UniProtKB/TrEMBL annotation:
Keyword set, alphabetical order: Kinase, Transferase
GO terms (BP aspect): organic acid phosphorylation
SUPFAM superfamilies, per the entry: Glycerate kinase I (SSF110738)
Name of the protein described by the UniProt record: Glycerate kinase
Pfam family, one: Gly_kinase
Natural source organism: Anaerovibrio lipolyticus
Origin: domain of life: Bacteria
One Gene Ontology MF term: glycerate kinase activity
Family in the record: Belongs to the glycerate kinase type-1 family.
Length: 379
């Protein structure tokens, strides 16, 4: 039996690969002769760097960068085994979890550290980038990142604008004469699953400003400044489009990538599926196993397990999913390619006990073993 295992991480418990290896162990307890292939799975959000980098034979990199509050922090990204592809999560340098609740204010938080990660990867030979832009603490239109890459974002006196959305208030001119030369050789695939424009009632300031710490008054101002930034950008780059779907993603980071780099915005899961060549493996499989930490009604809305199941059904392959827990709404997964799913929790325990990696691993092994025993029964 040829089995492909592609499961998303059980966040807080097991990484994608750890969960996959536990499933493999459970399978081997019943089908010792099975040929198994464990592949990384993620949807472009948290955990994508680790899943893709380690799952595809790459190496994690650590670098000191400027955090969202302007202080120095340690951030991690990945370089794949080809030496040319970097996997980056914006949240590693500009994530909202890096900012204490009482300091959240998009007027001052910056994406500068994201640009520093990109520069480091370029200097190490990377020219192809896969970037997840979820979970940001910022609303600076990506200006901080662009400054790190060498774009001079200048005020009326020719001085660099300050960090954060407040910098957009005084932005008057963009000079690209000092941009790092490697940038023109680079391509960027941006994992983006939102379609917000840059400005207006559906724009980044209005939709995401409050959760990043902005007041209603700040939101109105930021939206105006963001519009001015879009106008200045379009005066220099005619292709700049503030209304492009996803331009408002991550506080305008989508706009920055589309305007100032060679980038495309794509579904996170579609990027991962393409980069891991999951379809090639599934097409040869007898069984596909997937899953994630929690199967619920949201799983069918572009999450990784359903992405894997969709490919499997192209080839009429059976699909089983395992999850840390499931909700009543998870039955929707049965209509989207997952033939059967199983929660791995095997007793009444506290949440912390259930999420303990050692317990989660053993629960996964034991549950998979029993599912495989049923599969082996001749009815």
């Amino acid at each position: 039996m040829n089995i492909v295992i592609a499961i998303d991480s059980l966040k807080g418990s097991l990484t994608s690969l750890e969960a996959g290896k536990a499933i493999e162990t459970g399978i081997k307890k019943v089908y010792s002769e099975a040929v198994t292939k464990v592949l990384p799975l993620a949807d472009g959000g948290e955990g994508t760097v680790e899943a893709l980098t380690l799952g595809m034979g790459g190496k994690l990199q650590s670098i000191e960068v400027t955090g969202p509050l302007g202080n120095k922090i340690l951030a991690q990204y990945g370089i794949l085994s080809d030496g040319k592809t970097a996997i980056v999560e914006m949240a590693a340098a500009a994530g909202i979890t890096l900012v204490p609740d009482n300091k959240r204010n998009p007027l001052y938080t910056t994406t500068y550290g994201v640009g520093e990660i990109l520069l480091d990867a370029m200097h190490k030979g990377c020219r192809h980038f896969i970037i997840g832009i979820g979970g940001s603490a910022t609303n600076d239109g990506g200006v901080g990142m662009l400054q790190a890459l060498g774009y001079d974002m200048l005020d009326a006196d020719g001085n660099p604008v300050p960090f954060g959305a407040a910098g957009l208030k005084v932005l008057c001119r963009i000079d690209d004469s000092r941009v790092t030369p490697e940038l023109k050789e680079c391509s960027f695939r941006i994992a983006c699953d939102v379609t917000n424009p840059l400005c207006g009632e559906k724009g980044c300031s209005a939709i995401y400003g409050l959760q990043k710490g902005a007041s209603p008054e700040d939101i109105a101002l930021m939206d105006k400044w963001m519009g001015d930034y879009a106008r200045i950008s379009k005066e220099k780059y005619s292709h700049a489009d503030a209304n492009a779907p996803g331009a408002g993603a991550a506080g305008g980071m989508g706009f920055a990538f589309l305007t100032f780099t060679n980038a495309t915005l794509e579904s996170g899961i579609e990027i991962v599926l393409a980069e891991t060549k999951l379809e090639d493996h599934i097409s040869k499989a007898d069984l596909v196993i997937t899953g994630e930490g929690r199967l619920d009604g949201q799983t069918v809305m572009g999450k990784a397990p359903v992405g894997a199941a969709r490919i499997a059904k192209k080839y009429n392959k059976p699909v089983i999913a395992f999850a840390g827990c499931v909700t009543p709404e998870a039955t929707a997964c049965n209509e989207h390619g997952i033939d059967a799913f199983f929660p791995i929790l095997r007793g009444v325990v506290s949440l912390s006990e259930a999420m303990e990696p050692k317990n989660a691993r053993q629960n996964m092994i034991d549950t998979v073993e029993q599912a495989m025993r049923l599969l082996k029964v001749k009815i």
